[in-house]
Amino acid sequence: xxxxxxxxxxxxxxxxxxxxxxxxxxxxxxxxxxxxxxxxxxxxxxxxxxxxxxxxxxxxxxxxxxxxxxxxxxxxxxxxxxxxxxxxxxxxxxxxxxxxxxxxxxxxxxxxxxxxxxxxxxxxxxxxxxxxxxxxxxxxxxxxxxxxxxxxxxxxxxx
Length: 159
Known about the structure:
mainly alpha
């Protein structure tokens, strides 16, 4: 019985994630990410093709086929024979950081359960940078129980 209830809850949560319709803002961000990654990948492929078209980076067998002299000793040891793998640039990571900040603030501020456990302070508005802790185990339990009672999912009792 408990396993069936857990499976039902997991299935419904998974279906909610799969059937999520992105908002206009999310679609714009998706296109931004896609365009940046596509441009970086195209630049990488172009540089890689230029690298392999340069006879200095060819292996000695290919150099012989095309009538070029064989590279030996220091010249052969010090030359790059393979182009480095693709790595995203800092611009991509900056965009991801901005998106994560936006999503975290939007999702966490709109989450009822998170709001019951966290006191959000905005220093730019003039909130004090003071936080205090107390023994609030009972308050946390009450807030969690209240959230579970109000939500569509019922708490699961583990045996």
